[in-house]
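Example 5.3 — Endonuclease I
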Amino acid sequence: MVKIQESWQKIKNALEDGVGEWGVIAIVVLVGFSSFGLGRLSALEGAKPAVSIREAQTGAAARALPLGGLVVASRKGSAYHYPWCSGAESIAEQNKIWFKSEEAARKAGYTPAKNCKGLGQPAASSQ
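Solution (predicted structure tokens):
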């Protein structure tokens, strides 16, 4: 018990010598800033919206791939498109010509549409 009291007295004396009057003021200011910062953090935490997990909503119904083929062209045009490209969506149903492959569309005299990404690129060979 005596050793604890002696140790406590040594710590107390060291703090009084080392901290001094300005040290006490600095500690009070730091505690004040820390308290203010923690208060601001708690206010920000309360401002966050609650997180809820629910099933994702789909924007539009999934579209099935057309049965006609892989690429489509217009009877009146010169370019072929993937069915989901904007150019293909603007072709009237009665003017659509379907091809099973890009090669078949090229053989028929059509060229790849420039605004449809991925068309006209060589297929990756599987070796």
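Remark. DSSP finds three helices and four strands in the chain.
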